[in-house]
Structure formats: C-alpha cells, structure tokens
Amino acid sequence: xxxxxxxxxxxxxxxxxxxxxxxxxxxxxxxxxxxxxxxxxxxxxxxxxxxxxxxxxxxxxxxxxxxxxxxxxxxxxxxxxxxxxxxxxxxxxxxxxxxxxxxxxxxxxxxxxxxxxxxxxxxxxxxxxxxxxxxxxxxxxxxxxxxxxxxxxxxxxxxxxxxxxxxxxxxxxxxxxxxxxxxxxxxxxxxxxxxxxxxxxxxxxxxxxxxxxxxxxxxxxxxxxxxxxxxxxxxxxxxxxxxxxxxxxxxxxxxxxxxxxxxxxxxxxxxxxxxxxxxxxxxxxxxxxxxxxxxxxxxxxxxxxxxxxxxxxxxxxxxxxxxxxxxxxxxxxxxxxxxxxxxxxxxxxxxxxxxxxxxxxxxxxxxxxxxxxxxxxxxxxxxxxxxxxxxxxxxxxxxxxxxxxxxxxxxxxxxxxxxxxxxxxxxxxxxxxxxxxxxxxxxxxxxxxxxxxxxxxxxxxxxxxxxxxxxxxxx
Length: 475
Description:
The structure is a single chain. This protein is an all-alpha fold and about 475 residues long. It contains 20 helices and four strands. The chain is about 65% helix and about 0% strand. The strands form two sheets. A two-stranded antiparallel sheet has the order 1-2. A two-stranded antiparallel sheet has the order 3-4.
C-alpha cells in the first residue's frame, strides 16, 4: 500500500513533464521567461559563458530546470514540513487523477486483461531504452560518462547508506517483497517450471539495469562536456536524476522535445507496470478472501484507487516532496525491504523447512533445485541482511535532504511507518501462536503447517546431492 501511494506520485510527475514535451516551441525548462522563474534564473548558455561549475544552484544562480521542478511541478514550500500548504497545484492534481485512472483501467478486468496490457507496457520501454542507448553512445563525451559508471568508488562501501540503497535497488528490480511475484505466480499451473523462470527473471532484471546505466551515463557524460564540468558534478540521486539531470541533458540535444518525450513516456510505462503489478498483489488478498470483492471487482478496484487518490493528494501539496522523502527513506526504503527479506528467508529455510520446500518444487518441475539455493535460504541471505541492518542502525543519522534537516517528529513518524511493516511478520506469528491450541510446541508445529493443499512430504526421498556419490539428506 505504501509503495502504491509513493510510486504513483513519480508517475504523476512523469505525466506532467510528458505533457510539456508535446509542443513545437522551446521546452519550459530551457527558458527563464516563464511565470515561475525568478531573477536568479540563467539559461544553460549563460551558465557556460559565466563558467558556472555547478548545475543545481551556485553563486545564487539557478538553471531553469531547477525552477521548473521546484516552482512549477512541486510548488515547493521553503519552510519544509512546518508548512504543508494548500491544495492549489491543479496541474499535479489532474496528473495524479489521470495516473490513477490509467491504473484503474489496467486492473478492473483482472489478470487476463492486465496480461494483455503488459505485453505493450513492458516491451515498448525496451525500444525506447535502445533508442536512447544508441543516441547516447554516439554523443561527444559519452565515453567519460560510461567510464564514471563502470569505475567503482570503493570508499563508498564504508557508508551504510550505500548498502541499504543497493539492497533497495535489488528488491525493486526483482519485485521482491511486493507480493506481485507471489500473486501472479499463483495463477500459473502447478507443473510450470518456476525454477527456470526465476533465473530468467533475475537475468532480465539485472541485464536491464546494467544496460540502462549505459544509456543514462552516456548522456550525462555529454552533458558534463557541454557544461565544462566533471561527470560527478552532474550526477544527482533520487528524483533529481530523473526529473532534473536527465531532462536537462536531453534538452541539450537536437530535437529536445522528441528525446524528452521518449524518456518520460518510458518512465510512465515503467510506472504503470510497477504500479498495477504491486496493487494487484493487494487486490488479490481481498478478492481471494471476500466473495463481494471478487464478484464486484470493477467497483472494488474503483474504491481502492479512489481512496488512494485522495490520500495521495498529500504528495502534491507544497510540502508534498518532504512527505515523499519520508516514504522514500522509511516506508518503502531499503531498510524495510531488507527486514522482510530476512524473515522470508527464515520462514522458508528454517520455519517451513527448506527440505519440505525442495520436495514441493521437485514435484512441480521434476527435479531438485541446486543446493546453492538452500545455502542462500538458510545462511547467506539471513547473514547478509542482518549485517546490513546492524550496520545501518549503528551508522543511522536523522533524515536530511538537500540541506533540510527533518524535525524529530518527522523522523519518528517515518519510523512508525517503517515499524508498521516491521511488526507485521513477528506480530502475525505471535497471533498464530496465541490462537492455536495445545502445548507451546504443538501450537508452533500447527502454525508452521501450510494452509494450502501441497503434495504429501516424505523425509526419505528428498535429498540434496552434494556430490555424485554421496547424497546427503537436507536438514
């Protein structure tokens, strides 16, 4: 739910940008004569003539892309969370409504309908990515951007934040802990080869992220050369990369309207994919549990989308970007996802039992998975996640974004959002033990039983073959 509220905002921003690319005149983020511009605004050419070495505000000068983002898209409050502001950003309200309308019409007919839509929304972004990649690699200065992308900065590994962001990227790329993989997998036949699909998914997601990096940093390398600065001076994390740096870089190319339109269309389609897949996981819980939701799916989906639209209006207020960063850091950040990954691994490897899990997978695909998977379930993943979690808590600092230090109550609210996800797993485990019958051991045993029909488990048959001559029972 948090992810749906958070990510639809990114889609609404992309819709706003995309609308402004549908013109033959100059893009509004390349000029300083718009109503939202200030006296500090200077164009790119003026910045180069003045030898301004930064892109996001130096010497009391700002570029038009920064003012378009802060003063038009966000209508950003200068006083932070102390002044949320009024609901007067109507362009973003409309974009938010359009975004939710798109998601509704993707979901209202169920998985058969979304299965058809996803062929376009998942494949077309690859075409745009390929176009941007080819164009980016042919630009002057692209090589310096690619070198910056491929050359790691080992010193950054000493920061816990880097590890958390890396884990977050893995979870988002593979859709781990968002319920959508389990939801869509539940519609597959029992004998479908989920094991091979796991490798296909991992390879596709990793390859896409790796190739996308070339298209992004090739363009940033060109931008750095045009502006006469180092690549590190044009790289900005978070929303700034997608809505400040990259549009700015594309605007320096010939036909900037076309390239910006391609980029934001790609963002919109990727957001549509992510959004309706994640929301389907939530809807599936209710539709499987309650007959009314299943029989009145169109109405139920409308109620859910409408309710989330109303809650999401908080993100388009002048203080909305500050709320967005709280969600980004705490509610849907890497630390929350790592916690859920830890408990999923423990649940499969130790509670339900990896031997029992292997037996069911063998019944599905006809052969046992690699022993490496068992080692990951029981040891590697729990150890890695615990290491990052402990490192993060020892290195924790209150949230600060672009020089704004969040007040204590805002950080506490963020931790409340985080704990609402943290406590779900142990809380439900305690509830299952409490409502069970018998001794403590019997309650634990019953709580670990599967609630769905699975093949009868035989302890004698399931083994992991560690060598060709010495099969070892999996414990």
